[in-house]
């Protein structure tokens, strides 16, 4: 919209100490100055936040939210296999998201608090 | 007329992006995120996970941009992430406000 990010990209790429492969990475279509780089990291963030929440008491775990995370993760794991091109890193990301969600639900079930808000 | 209308419907049902495929249900199940945030409108702030809410707000904000940059653009996905970012952000603010009030209560407690 304001063209700030392309200008920043040009500015960073102009630094002399970058090797050729780094300049290629910075200027690429899926490089760190595009949204396509950061969206998979955001999805990994959900799994990491869930792993961090595993040390919290079970009462603080939101059953419905974990159901949604697990179900979305499983369905998108399947979706990643049927789209072209297949991106296996995205498969792994969604699979981990589903596993962390299912584990949180299992923790709640173990303490008999699966259906308590 | 009726047979043409039902033809369009059943053509869609049996199509490669219809309701018998994952292509349809994967984006639909994304809508469960904002629906969950609506269901938890009055959730006890002590039971809201600050980290998870931060991540969900960032996730939806980034995917709002992504939905407009992919080809073809997906305005439905954009709307879904807009709702999600707003509603999950509301839960985050609810938790932060509660933490702030708890901190204030501890500071205001008279020391004996």
From TrEMBL, chain A:
InterPro entries: MPC
Keywords in alphabetical order: Membrane, Mitochondrion, Mitochondrion inner membrane, Transmembrane, Transmembrane helix, Transport
Pfam families according to UniProt: MPC
A cellular component term, taken from the record's GO annotations: mitochondrial inner membrane
Main localization, broad class: mitochondrion
Domain of life: Eukaryota
Subcellular location, record wording: Mitochondrion inner membrane
Topology relative to the membrane: Multi-pass membrane protein
A biological process from GO: pyruvate import into mitochondria
Function: Mediates the uptake of pyruvate into mitochondria.
Recorded family membership: Belongs to the mitochondrial pyruvate carrier (MPC) (TC 2.A.105) family.
Protein name (Swiss-Prot/TrEMBL): Mitochondrial pyruvate carrier
Source organism: Paramecium primaurelia
TrEMBL record, chain B:
Major localization class: mitochondrion
Source taxon at top rank: Eukaryota
Function: Mediates the uptake of pyruvate into mitochondria.
InterPro entries: MPC
Record localization: Mitochondrion inner membrane
Gene Ontology cellular component list: mitochondrial inner membrane
Provenance organism: Paramecium pentaurelia
GO terms (BP aspect): pyruvate import into mitochondria
Membrane-crossing segments per the record: none
Protein name per its UniProtKB record: Mitochondrial pyruvate carrier
Bilayer topology term: Multi-pass membrane protein
Keywords from the UniProt entry: Membrane, Mitochondrion, Mitochondrion inner membrane, Transmembrane, Transmembrane helix, Transport
UniProt family annotation: Belongs to the mitochondrial pyruvate carrier (MPC) (TC 2.A.105) family.
